[in-house]
Specification:
Length: 395
């Protein structure tokens, strides 16, 4: 069923309470999610985006209860990724001549995924607009790399609604739709997790795009995202948060991440945690086993941190595969202006600390010289080194 957003704009999306992962299994979903689509009914009727393919039939059936598909004047696809365009093929089977407004790159992604079907694409760029009647028009704003090259946002004049697509969203199911109806603690957490794990690599683009949106001087009363809540209560708050997060964000926090074979490296992790707290009682310290804790949750904590310490024992002249995989993901997120230290146990050759330091540098961290290499099991001499390591990270 459609649900009122404002005036003649309704939400017609899908709330997915059972969804557990996204982007394959690369993003964990704990509190559900939504695929938000919108129906504008003015002199011209416009569908803004669709839903993920597994939900397409329910979406189309519900949409038909609200409007005859033949009465749609055109469709706007802000982003060609399948969670937004997944119902497009089945809709276009019924109304094949309906124009589709999108970016030039979106044509490539849509045809690349679904094949060339001869659809009537109307490509747009920033500043282009289309009149929908009753004194209103849609203005298009390219959102390059937020988070695909084909992304854009669409602004509805008079109602002052920014259909922002993936920007400013969260994977968070809110039956009541709006941010003022959501659990604020969960909303804040999920918004940060979404930024840290999906958008942080594109922070330079975020900064530029926010400036561009502000310079357009468009009044924004509502930010209608593609996932999670619709921002109607002080919608600029999430734009302000993005501006803050994009600027090498950090809090007074240090996160320790490790995996262990026979508990020696785990003991070092906890001793380092104690040393940091002793040296700086106000600093938040969090400790995670990367083999047991969801990687997206850990990365959200890394995003908040000014420094991290990463530990692995040496195995096969290398580090544990769990830590290696975690570090690969860490590098892809392109964190900036954060310190790092390495630690680990070994029995024979002891390469893990050096490998960790190299990988942390490669991931863009400022790696301190202080480290802990513990032969077999850590003893008091090894534990004592945790104080120097803590001081170096706090310096």
């Amino acid at each position: 069923m459609k649900r009122l957003v404002k005036n003649n704009v309704n939400w017609v999306g899908y709330i997915d309470w059972e969804l557990e992962t996204f982007h394959g299994d690369d993003y964990s979903i704990i509190n559900g999610s939504s695929q938000n689509a919108y129906l504008i009914e003015e002199e011209k009727n416009v569908l803004i985006d669709t839903v993920w393919a597994p939900n397409r039939f329910e979406f189309i059936d519900n949409l038909k209860k609200e409007i005859d598909l033949k009465d749609l004047d055109f469709i706007v696809i802000n982003h060609g990724e399948v969670d937004h365009s997944g119902a497009l093929v089945d809709i276009m089977k019924e109304i094949p001549d309906t124009p589709i407004y999108c970016t030039k790159n979106a044509v490539k992604s849509i045809e690349g995924q679904y094949g060339k079907k001869g659809w009537d694409f109307r490509t747009v760029k920033t500043g282009d607009s289309v009149d929908i009647g009753n004194g209103k028009k849609l203005i298009f704003v390219e959102m390059l790399m937020l988070h695909w090259p084909d992304s854009m946002a669409t602004y509805l004049t008079e109602d002052n609604i920014l259909f922002s697509n993936d920007a400013f969203g969260q994977h968070y199911a809110v039956e009541e739709l709006f941010n003022d109806k959501a659990d604020k603690c969960l909303l804040d957490r999920e918004a940060m997790k979404y930024y840290a794990n999906i958008l942080n690599p594109f922070s330079n683009f975020v900064t530029k795009k926010i400036k561009e949106i502000v310079d357009l001087n468009l009044p924004i009363d509502i930010i209608a995202t593609s996932h999670g809540v619709i921002w109607r209560d002080n919608p600029m708050q999430i734009i302000e948060k993005y501006a803050e997060w994009a600027d090498a964000y950090q809090e007074d926090q240090i996160t320790i991440v490790y995996d262990t074979m026979w508990d020696g490296t785990a003991k070092l992790a906890h001793k380092i945690s104690q040393a940091i707290s002793k040296e700086s009682p106000d600093t938040v310290v969090k400790v995670f086993s990367c083999a047991k804790t969801d990687k997206n949750e850990i990365m959200t904590e890394v995003f908040k941190s000014k420094a991290i310490a990463v530990g692995s024992p040496t195995t096969g002249n290398d580090i544990l595969s769990s830590v290696a995989g975690w570090l690969h993901f860490l590098k892809s997120l392109k964190f900036k202006e954060k310190k790092a230290a390495a630690f680990g146990c070994y029995g024979w050759s002891g390469e893990s600390v050096k490998i960790l330091q190299e990988k942390l540098k490669d991931a863009g961290f400022e790696v301190v010289d202080e480290n802990i290499r513990s032969l077999w099991n850590p003893d008091e001499d090894d534990f004592a080194k945790s104080e120097d390591l803590a001081k170096a990270l706090l310096k």
